[in-house]
């Protein structure tokens, strides 16, 4: 398939309309058979559940071209499983994970001309989402829903590629204990918009959110989990019931232990101990692993020894191994790579 005429190397993280998207509709208690469409417009009631009460959940994953020219996705079954969990929490009917994976395959195959070539540093981002479409005015779940997957070719999430980021400790909270921080609901992102605009206005790249109950423990940023490396080379990531269970982070813990022979641990991490770490990174589908050079806590600077010009050495090894697995240069653990074509 001939590729589209796109300058792949200069793509940022933005929306470019591709040829096909996947759509399925839920009505009278059942999902229809779904399929591809070229229509990028959504027409719904002015009173739709998604518009009135933000009844929507979503996912994010990528398709890559491997070194030997295959198109693959990374652990889409885990995105399907997480979307099921997100849907249950917002009283949205589950779109079954097996159908999710089939839809991913179908939509990537149809848009294969938009999958960036190997070595370009870009990938095809997939955004699956579910939303309530029929009218609700009393506070209650919709009865009709749509599931869509749109795709868009993307480059790095943070401008400047892998230049270390500067974060601030945020005074706003992202998620409450027993709230919705652990699911991928649009509402979590809506309420982070003011905090991120304010952070950017103050010259910071991202916010470090703390736990809302005590404001002493590290949670995550608006769109990625944290990963730290201790001075003796151990990988540690925050454990919390109110952060998104990142598929990238779970994969990196495995990579650290089984590919790099490092100790890796998920545990509560206090803000107080952050100054003692050697390296820090943000991990996620969009962020991949983006190094953090500095965190500012109300004027007090925490500068990581890895500095402001490059990734720390262990972060770099993790990055190279993960991206090597995703692009077929390094053999993947069983079941991690779903081949599309
Ligand atoms: N945390 C938040 C709030 C996110 O939006 C994301 C992105 O999906 C992540 C973490 C990383 O999750 P994953 O690695 O599954 O993409
Ligand atoms: C992703 O990494 O897929 C996300 O959904 C995060 C978002 C900030 C783009």
Q: Catalogue the unreliable spans.
A: none
Largest sheet report: 9 strands, antiparallel
CATH fold-type name of the largest domain: D-amino Acid Aminotransferase, Chain A, domain 2
Number of strands: 17
The CATH architecture of the largest domain can be named as: Alpha-Beta Barrel
Q: How far is it from the N-terminal to the C-terminal residue, by CA?
A: 11 Å
Helix content: 10-25%
Q: What gross morphology would you assign?
A: globular
Rg over CA atoms: 20 Å
What is the overall number of helices? Answer: 7
Mean pLDDT: 97
The structure class reads: alpha+beta
Number of domain units = 2
Question: Any idea what the CATH superfamily of the largest domain is called?
Answer: D-amino Acid Aminotransferase, subunit A, domain 2
Which series of helices and strands comes N to C?
A: EEEHEEEHHEEEHHEEEHEEEEHE
β content, as a range? 25-35%
Bound molecules: pyridoxal-5'-phosphate, 2-OXO-4-methylpentanoic acid
């Amino acid at each position: 398939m001939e590729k589209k005429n796109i300058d792949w190397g200069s793509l940022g993280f933005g929306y470019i309309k591709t040829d096909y998207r996947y759509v399925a509709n839920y009505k009278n208690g059942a999902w229809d058979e779904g399929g591809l469409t070229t229509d990028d417009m959504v027409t719904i009631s002015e009173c739709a559940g998604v518009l009135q009460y933000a009844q929507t959940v979503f996912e994010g994953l990528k398709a890559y071209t491997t070194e030997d020219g295959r198109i693959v996705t990374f652990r889409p079954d885990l995105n399907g499983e997480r979307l099921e969990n997100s849907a249950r929490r917002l009283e949205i009917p589950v779109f079954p994970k097996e159908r999710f994976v089939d839809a991913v395959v179908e939509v990537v195959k149809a848009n294969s001309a938009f999958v960036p070539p190997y070595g370009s540093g870009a990938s095809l981002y997939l955004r699956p989402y579910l939303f309530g479409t029929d009218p609700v005015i009393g506070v209650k779940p919709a009865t009709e829903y749509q599931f869509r997957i749109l795709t868009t070719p993307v480059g790095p999430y943070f401008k400047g590629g892998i230049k270390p980021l500067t974060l601030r400790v945020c005074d706003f909270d992202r998620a409450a204990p027993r709230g919705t921080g652990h699911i991928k609901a649009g509402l979590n992102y809506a309420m982070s918009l003011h905090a991120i605009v304010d952070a950017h206005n103050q010259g910071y790249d991202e916010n470090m959110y703390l736990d809302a109950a005590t404001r002493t423990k590290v949670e995550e940023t608006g769109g990625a989990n944290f990963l730290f490396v201790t001075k003796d080379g151990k990988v540690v990531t925050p454990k919390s019931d109110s952060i998104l269970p990142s598929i990238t982070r779970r994969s990196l813990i495995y990579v650290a232990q089984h590919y790099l022979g490092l100790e890796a641990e998920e545990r509560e991490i206090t803000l107080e101990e952050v100054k003692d770490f050697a390296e820090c990174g943000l991990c996620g589908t969009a962020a991949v692993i983006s190094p953090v050079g500095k965190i500012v806590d109300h004027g007090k600077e925490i500068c990581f020894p890895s500095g402001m010009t490059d990734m720390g050495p262990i972060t770099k090894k993790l990055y190279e191994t993960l991206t090597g697995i995703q692009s077929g240069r390094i053999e993947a653990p069983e079941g991690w790579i779903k081949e599309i074509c």
